[in-house]
Amino acid sequence: MRHFHGATMVDMLVYRGEGAAVVHGEDLYAMRVWDLPATYPPFAAMLFVPSTWFEVSTLRVLVMVLGLALLALAVHLSLRLIEWPRARHRPAAVLFATGLGVWLEPVYTTFQYGQVNLGILCLVLWDLTRPDRSRFKGVGIGLATAIKITPGLFAVYLLLTGRIRAALVSAGTFLTAGLIGWLVLPDASFGFWTRYLWDPSRVGVTALMDNQSLRGAVCRLLDVSDPGLVGLAACAVVGTLGLAVAVLAGRSARLLRRADAWGAVCTAFTALLISPISWTHHWVWCIPLIALLAAEGRSTARRVLLGITLAVFLSHAMWISPHRWGRGVAWYWQLPGSIYPPLGIAVLVAVGLRLYRGWRSAGNGSGADHGIPAGRTGHDAALT
After folding, report:
1. Beta bridge partners of 279
2. Nearest C-alpha neighbor of 279 from the set 199, 198, 201, 206
3. How many Å from the N-terminal Cα to the C-terminal Cα in the chain?
4. Half-sphere exposure of 286 (CA within 13 A, CB side)
């Protein structure tokens, strides 16, 4: 189990190496730390420059403290997004959930590697909790995309749910950050955007247990290194359906409680599922998912779903498998070794079914999802 492993913070060391390459004018994408290359855009490497100001031992402590602060902020923003619980109970809820959150496998592994995932999560959640009328809505998603690319799907979500200005602000922020990277590091920028971005093998081996994307799960199921057309078709189907469910949820405030929060979670899970590589620590979006399930756990079925979700993310199941490299996985290790993709797909299906039931109820004149009157506004529905 991961609890008994030392925290190497190897990714933190890679980030520090990227910052050092920027400072010393070295080839950013030829740099190696523990044989690991730089995989983020040049703009991200520029943000890592301050990590070179500290010794590694000091940096480990600072990163751990910052990680705990970001975890608490992610919990706070998640609860703010779903408007639960009441304001006077929220500080206690943040404190409790932060203590529990440390043991969630994606969060624990983020700390172990010294990863940036909690920062990316907070940037996106900060954007989503801002009023649609805010002129700065979209900045956080744009910055997150400039650092790690995959949050760009949230800009598509904003666009398709009618927040056109926020989507344009997001795109503008991303392009501005990319331009800054190009001006400061032109050679590295040319190499990244024309070559390294399109090479998933540079990020890691697809079949590894660490990779909890749909593509990785298919590799392990078929016992291959490249899933080929099967993996491409699976990602195309799940990506199309997942984005459709996310957008429909975001546009269905009269039918679905906390519609925008569900839309955001579905967008995140869709991105995680269709990305060629989604390491376990990328699944920190389990934090708002668990918050949503806790807020809506009024029935036995939803409490069971909450319990299953907690069990999955607290189990560290993929690390129990003896097939660490993802090849030759026995059938009875397939589910534990690829536990996040089935859960992600189950969330998309469950939200889709809730929307379908809501439309049927509305069509029959019986009101919206779980008794929300059809005339309620999106804000009112979110507070229910």
Report:
1. 211
2. 206
3. 40
4. 31
Residue labelled with tokens 């420059």:
49
Residue 282, classed as helix, strand or coil, is helix
Is the bond preceding 85 in cis, omega lying within 30 degrees of 0? Answer: yes
The Cβ-side half-sphere exposure at 78, using a 13 Å CA radius, reads 26
pTM: 0.93
Write down the mean pLDDT value for the chain. Answer: 92
Helix 105-113 vs helix 56-82: crossing angle, to nearest 10? 150
| Distance from C-alpha of 38 to C-alpha of 45, rounded to nearest angstrom | 8
CA-closest candidate to residue 104, choices 333, 320, 280: 280
- Give the count of beta carbons closer than 10 Å to the beta carbon of residue 102: 13
**Could you tell me the maximum CA-CA distance found in the chain, to the nearest angstrom?**
68
Report CA-CA distances (Å) from 261 to 3, 5, 351, 382: 31, 34, 11, 9
| Cβ-Cβ contacts under 8 Å for 39 (sequence gap 6 or more) | 196, 202, 203
Neighbours of 58 (CB within 10 A): 10
- Cβ proximity of 312 and 339 under 8 Å: yes
Phi, psi at residue 36, to the nearest 5°?
-105, 130
Q: How far apart are CA 45 and CA 193, in angstroms?
A: 14
75-120 residue pLDDT tens: 999 999 999 999 899 999 999 999 999 999 999 999 999 999 999 9
